[in-house]
Heat shock 70 kDa protein 13
Amino acid sequence: MAGASGSMIGVGIFVLLLAGYIAQKYGLPPPAPKIAGIDLGTTYSSIGIYHAVTGETTIIPDDIGKKSVPSVVAFLPNGTLLIGTRAVEQQEKNPKTTIYDAKRFIGRNFEKDNKDFLEDQKRYPFVIKLDDTGRAYFEVAFKNSEITKFYPEEIGALIIDYLKSAAEKHIGSKLSQVVISVPAEFNEKQRNTTGHAASLVGLEVRRVISEPTAAALAYGLHKKQGVESIVVVDLGGGTLDVSVLWLQGGVFVTQAMAGNNRLGGQDFNDRVQKFIIKEIEKQTSKIVDDKEDLQQIRLVIEKAKIRLTSVPKTTISLDLKSVGKFSYDLSRDEFEKLNEDLLKAIELPITAALADAKLEPSQVDEIVLVGGSTQVPAVRKIVGRYFGKSPNYGIDPELAVVTGASVQAGVIGGGWPLQVAAMELPPKRRKRHFFTEQQKENEKDRETL
């Protein structure tokens, strides 16, 4: 029976190879993509498709040309729903009904006195509460005083539906299946809840793939000779994740994970925001506490941080309700000094993950940078100096995960030419978390300056 089964598999593979060869030789149209790859991120989300025959992937932009769509959903007083960039653009006008960072809470249960959750309730301008089971939900008050609950997976579903519509418009046909990425540390409940977000908009989830594995697939490391040990440093808007992968025979094994769920691009922004607010108050003797003003400052600082990745200095220009016009010239050096301890803290999870995997930095074959915050020059310098060699960042770090998820989607969908994508085994180790006390102490020190 085993021999017959092996023969059947061999014949199936031969037929697929033959079909691919005939299609390429005679110019037959490739089959329409059946499956999309989705990266539902904390800060940005994306969708991609794999092209049969060419083996290339396309990350699909939305109707305003954005491939990285902000994971933001806004409920306007008149009932209009905005998603992505349009939601961000009006955020300062409707801070209480514009929801972001929903992924932080997906598939999780909290105790009523959970310190992290209580901090989040103060941190965000919108209302977050816990139901009787400890699940977080967002409370949105509409103009008619109607209050509606939205759970994190429901916010995720709205973002996925937006991405799905863009993809269907691009390919001219309906999508019904998806490969979706999640952080390597996500437990079964978090993975299932993320998958449920896709199912809420009619998508069948064919596979949930870990973000580090997807990033490695994007760089084709599963096909590169001599690669066994891979470190993926994923620094996004809200979290830092470091994963050590072992690659053997087309199988990825997550050997170790470490990270800091309170370290990301938003934390860099918060440091700058506190500094700018103090400068405003020092120069004008006025307190900045209006929520719309604070939201405007937050958005302007995000843009300034992005500009500083390519220029040494930029001007922060504000027109605040409580103060009026204010501007400040922020240099890259000053940005790095304000965030010096946070940048240094990037090394802690890297060291911990390597120790758990029993590896020295010199034994790592490839380093992959993922997440928009790895575009900060100081981050790339820190990682490169730590390992003594340049990391991979040729692919847009915000799109590396969705690219890998799209590759996996194409293979599952039977794309031509026939490929064998890497498999992944679940991690045996739990993720080590760093909520550094030193980080908190430094924060307190800065607040007293």
User: Anything to note?
Assistant: DSSP finds 14 helices and 20 strands in the chain.
